[in-house]
Design goal:
It is a multi-pass membrane protein. The chain has 224 residues and is mainly α. The chain is 74% helix and 0% strand.
Length: 224
């Protein structure tokens, strides 16, 4: 695999996007060029999310939380209503058992992005607070790199799944015209949000490091 080959494969993906032909895009995403395109999309997408969150505090405070709450309420409503309909009226919507798992998927990854704001994911605050200041900052940078790498991998692999689903016209079971990729696309979007939170946290950590403020603090579950 040479650099020229990698760039050519990446360009073939970019060239296929305007056609919006899911089969063509799915085929090009199977090449190694998808990793280069995915890296750029993850970093630029995450940077855009971080900028939007900085410019619009209401969006930063409520977007992921709203997605979580509404997804949870929809899951509860579908299951609750359909249980009553099944045991009382002996009828049930055929999609009532297939839609909730997708809603749970949306809720879970939106919640992952939201909790990254509060650094609730294995922050090791007590251990890191005993380190020298430079080591503390190095650990925080390492956290950001790990989250961005994790997001990059998931954005690439899940986008392949999305376009493969679209190319094969996979329909949500129990429905006639609801495509699975409409729901699956929430996964790469969620991980771009996670990348944005990682960049946002890194910017905060850098400012604190330069200003001499405390770098490590105990995480707060659902801090606001």
């Amino acid at each position: 695999m040479t650099l020229v080959t990698l760039l050519n494969e990446a360009w073939s993906i970019i060239a296929a996007i305007p056609s919006w032909d899911s089969w063509t895009i799915s085929e090009t995403l199977g090449t190694n060029g998808a990793w280069l395109v995915g890296l750029v999309v993850t970093l630029l997408g995450g940077l855009l999310v971080a900028v939007l969150y900085a410019r619009f505090p209401a969006l930063e405070n409520h977007f992921e939380k709203s997605v979580m709450i509404w997804s949870y309420l929809l899951i509860a409503a579908i299951i609750g209503v359909e249980v009553v309909r099944r045991f009382v009226f002996s009828v049930q919507a055929p999609w009532s058992t297939t839609l909730p798992p997708f809603l749970f998927l949306i809720m879970s990854w939106a919640g992952c992005a939201y909790n990254l704001k509060f650094r609730n994911h294995l922050s090791f605050a007590e251990f890191r607070s005993m380190m020298p200041r430079t080591f503390q900052f190095a650990c925080l940078v390492f956290d950001a790199v790990l989250w961005l790498t994790f997001s990059w991998v998931v954005v690439v692999t899940s986008t392949r799944v999305v376009f493969n689903s679209a190319a094969n016209f996979q329909i949500l079971l129990g429905t006639d015209n609801v495509m699975q990729w409409w729901l699956l696309i929430s996964v790469p979007i969620s991980f771009i949000l996670i990348a944005g939170r990682a960049i946002e946290n890194l910017a905060i950590d850098y400012r604190r490091y330069k200003n001499g403020a405390d770098l490590i603090s105990a995480s707060a579950q659902f801090g606001d």
